[in-house]
Amino acid sequence: MQDKLINIVIVGHVDHGKSTVIGRLLADTNSLPEGKLEQVKKTCERNAKPFEYAFLLDALKDEQSQGITIDAARVFFRTTKRHYLILDAPGHIEFLKNMVTGASHAECALLVIDAAEGVQENSRRHGTMLSLLGIKQVAVLVNKMDLVDYSRTVFDSIVEEFQAFLSQLDVEPVAWIPVSGMQGDNIASSTNDNIASNNGDCVAACGSPWYEGPTVLEALDRFKAAPPLDDKPFRMPVQDVYKFTRAADDRRIVAGTVESGRLRPGDEVIFYPSGKRSHVKRIEVFNAESPAGAVCGQATGFTLTEQIYVKRGELAARAGEKPAPLVSSRFAVSLFWLGRKPLATGRDYTLKLGAARVPVRLAEVRKVIDASDLSDTGKSAIERHDVAECVLQTQRAIALDLADDFPGTGRFVLVDDYEIAGGGIVREALADQQSELRRRVFIRDSKWVGSDLHPIERSRRYNQRATLVLITGEVASGRKDVARLLERSLFEEGKFVYYLGIGSIRYGVDADILEGRSDEPDEDRLEHIRRMAEVANILLHAGLILIITARDITQNELDIMRTVLGDEIIESVWVGERKTTDLAPTLHLDNVSDTAEGAGRIIDMLQRKGIVFKPW
């Protein structure tokens, strides 16, 4: 019985012959489609072009014309022991980002070095990147040994130099193999076998009879498959939520691919970073009976007993399993940078981790490392091809894991100008401004005693979606007048709505803060905001459209409310031409001629978003 499929990436400096190695391996093990080898040879003959085994992989015309691989080729291959997916990743320095795409899905690696050229800067970069991606199982192939007369001295020198480098990365290759991709030596059979069967007239110098280690084929079978992830805690990045409306089908199917663990009906799941929780009602599959569960590696979907609002980018985990996902907007990472422009503070990038896509900035550079020799450069800027230890700050909190614990949810890429410009691994989740508040909210939600009336029932009965409309602006902006007219207008349309001024909270819920004080101290403002959000949480659970006014709300204060309530339930409105804070509101009423116009524009926004419906 064969072992499970294992993913292997092959990397190396440009022209060091990695594609030739794989092409030769496929040919010598009869793994090619019938007639493929002959077809490629005839094509080369028609074009008066010398045949190369690399052409078996380099299918694109522009790849053959340039003589380099420009995209990661996927090759399925098998031995008597197991199935493989071999990813041939590019080696040219301009295509390192494509190599990242290939290596990010691999468990093991073959790293190819040209015996004649020796260890190159890119060879060391590839070793560093494999280490950053958590790929510790590596076999180093010293290729083109025929060009150095199979010199053991040359081979030993390369091994000594590169082994010293890899040891700094805590990478110990499982094998160092002298090979000739062109001649087939030590690929699928040993040099001595080739001499005996194919090169009978050669002397021993024609090969490497001094080498007694495994062939590439044998080294592949010596790689250990990654341990099954089924027994680890459950993780599933939410890719989408599918909703149905026909034939009274009100299912909301949470869909994604299981990164680790398993899930069964009845399991309680928590979605991070929102902290929302429910129980699995049913595992859903297309046009088939519902299975007993979902396991690691499966693309799956499931419905919940309570229809909570879940969105793409959240991370599903089973309640009670440890460790739970980490949630923060600040985290320490190790990353490599491939962008044309330096990775700089003050610029916005996009971070992709799991299914999450979120704006991110570089918050702190701790150390910039020269990827070719691992020295500390002492630089404060992260330039192209640098490796760095740094701190990233996302615009909002996201869920993640440490890469050492969960590679699938601990690796990320950075996008700049719509291009992948870097990537790396999460080393540590750091505390941010909302960490303590997030902890309190998580406890609150775990202890929440819910009503027997489902939020969807209230939404259907009230013909609206519970929402907080937060109206802010300067003191004399007219925000309160707009809020009161908005409440009246929605009420007359039959909506369940309530206007709550912050003063109603200050002298009631916040009386302990204000006792003995004539003015509201600035240091207590954030606590006022938090308590206001908690009051709003209760009223929103009752299905109301809640209108709150407060002066000069900042982005940080809005983030506090989003942490307490969830960002999908808040619509923020700034009233007044002059914005005095850093708030990025949903709607800016910068040119309102009268109160009725302002209220009308807010109602238009609520209708566009489906929070309320236009009257017939």
What is the structure about, briefly put?
The protein is of the alpha/beta class and 616 residues long. Strand 5, helix 6 (152-168) and strand 6 form a beta-alpha-beta unit. Residues 59-64 and 195-205 have low confidence and may be disordered.
Describe this structure in words.
This protein has a six-stranded mixed sheet, with helices on both faces. A six-stranded antiparallel barrel has the order 7-8-13-11-10-14. It has a six-stranded antiparallel beta barrel with strand order 15-18-17-16-19-20. The longest helix is centred in the first third of the chain and has 17 residues. With 616 residues, the chain is α/β, with parallel strands linked by helices. The protein has 16 helices and 25 strands. It is elongated. It has four domains: 220 residues, Rossmann fold; 83 residues, Beta Barrel (Elongation Factor Tu (Ef-tu), domain 3); 111 residues, Beta Barrel (Elongation Factor Tu (Ef-tu), domain 3); 160 residues, P-loop containing nucleotide triphosphate hydrolases (Rossmann fold). It starts with a strand and ends in an 8-residue tail after the last helix.
